[in-house]
Design a protein that fits this description.
The chain is 59% helix and 7% strand. The protein is of the alpha/beta class. It has a seven-stranded mixed beta sheet with strand order 3-4-5-2-1-7-6. Strand 4 and strand 5 form a beta hairpin. Helix 4 crosses helix 5. The longest helix has 34 residues. It is globular, with a radius of gyration of 21 Å. The C terminus is likely disordered.
Length: 363
């Protein structure tokens, strides 16, 4: 029973620390006193759990800003300090790769949209340390994708991993084990040329502090639709990072002033992601403290049947989404089908993903 109590405490402390209110005020996520604070095994458990949900850097950053940091057991303080230093070095290394990549693209006069953490961490988060990342994501025009690759591969970069026909991105790096730059020609598998062209037409330049004006970002509404598909359908909200990305985007002034919820819901219905949108809106509202307009909830309700809503509601369980013991394969497979509007879409998406990764069926 004691082990179960401690596991529950580990999970609760880490998840509370990773919520937006803790980024604004560390005492919200890390209380000054806690039953297990003198237990080194407890603290090692928190670091292991934060690492398993891809959130080690923000957890450590919140902890460092709290009054608890200097009261940690000596062995834990040494481990955590070393881990935090390492994570900051990773971030600095990725910043360097971003600068080098953008310089290559600017010299070649190739337009670029900066994606995910490298963009959102700078523009929307209260501090970049709260938005960890493992690579640099760049979107370039589809018709200049091959040219982009030639510019990168003619310099210090090399291909990382396979690039079979039909794949929409290529990972490059200076070494096989070093920092990775992902070059995309489309956001996701299955995106049409028309959809991708629309993203470029609506993209904005000069929006990222500290970066050259030629670097573009997705419009707020396009970003939201992309994050719904990417975080819910592709990644099944495997990390609180995705919830924070969505939270800060939805709360941003740009999104609130420009979002057309009727259009967002209509497009999701057409793309077969209405259920995923319904799920995202509810988990943000119920579990993450995000202010979701009643209008958005109303429009979304109309596109998802009551039965489907019950199935989706069953997925809004942080114990299962962020399990300290990991997520079972059966739960993952079942969730993928529930989140897709049509069963055939789930099969089709899975096949496309397999082909794009270059996987081959065993004979």
């Amino acid at each position: 029973m004691r082990s179960l109590d401690q596991s529950h405490a580990v999970r609760k402390l880490v998840l509370n620390a990773l919520k937006p209110e803790s980024f604004a005020n560390s005492t919200q996520g890390i209380p000054p006193e806690y039953e297990h604070f003198g237990n080194s095994n407890f603290w090692v458990g928190t670091l292991n759990f934060a690492t398993s949900i891809h959130s080690r850097l923000p957890f450590l950053a919140v902890l460092e800003r709290s009054s608890v940091w200097r009261t940690l057991p000596d062995d834990v303080f040494a481990i955590f300090s070393q881990a935090l230093t390492y994570e900051r070095m990773v971030l600095a290394n990725l910043d360097y790769e971003l600068e080098e990549s953008l310089a290559i693209l600017k010299r070649a006069e190739i337009p670029v949209i900066l994606l995910k953490g490298m963009d959102l961490g700078r523009r929307l988060y209260p501090s970049r340390v709260f938005r960890p990342m493992t690579d640099v994501d760049l979107l370039v025009p589809s018709d200049r994708f091959e040219e982009t690759l030639s510019h990168f591969l003619s310099g210090p970069y090399q291909k990382i991993g396979p690039f079979p026909a039909g794949r929409i991105r290529l990972e490059v790096g200076r070494t096989k084990d070093g920092a990775v730059v992902e070059i995309h020609k489309k956001l996701q598998v299955g995106d049409s040329d028309e959809m991708t062209l629309g993203l470029w037409n609506r993209a904005q330049s000069g929006a990222i502090p500290g970066l050259d004006s030629h670097v573009q970002v997705l419009s707020a509404q396009d970003y939201f639709s992309y994050l719904v598909r990417h975080s819910a359908i592709q990644h099944l909200i495997e990390s609180p990072i995705w919830l924070n990305d969505l939270h800060y985007l939805v709360q941003s002034e740009e999104f609130r002033s420009t979002a057309n919820w009727q259009q967002i819901v209509s497009e999701a219905l057409g793309e077969g992601t209405a259920g995923a949108l319904w799920f995202v809106l509810r988990i943000l509202k119920l579990e993450w403290g995000t202010s979701i307009p009643d209008q958005a909830l109303l429009y979304s309700n109309r596109t998802v049947s009551p039965f489907k809503q019950k199935l989706l509601l069953s997925l809004i369980d942080l114990n299962r989404l962020f399990s300290i013991h990991g997520r079972s394969r059966a739960w993952v497979i079942g969730s993928r089908f529930i989140l897709r509007d049509h069963m055939s879409d789930a099969f089709s998406y899975g096949i496309q993903r397999i082909r794009s990764r270059g996987w081959k069926a065993e004979k």
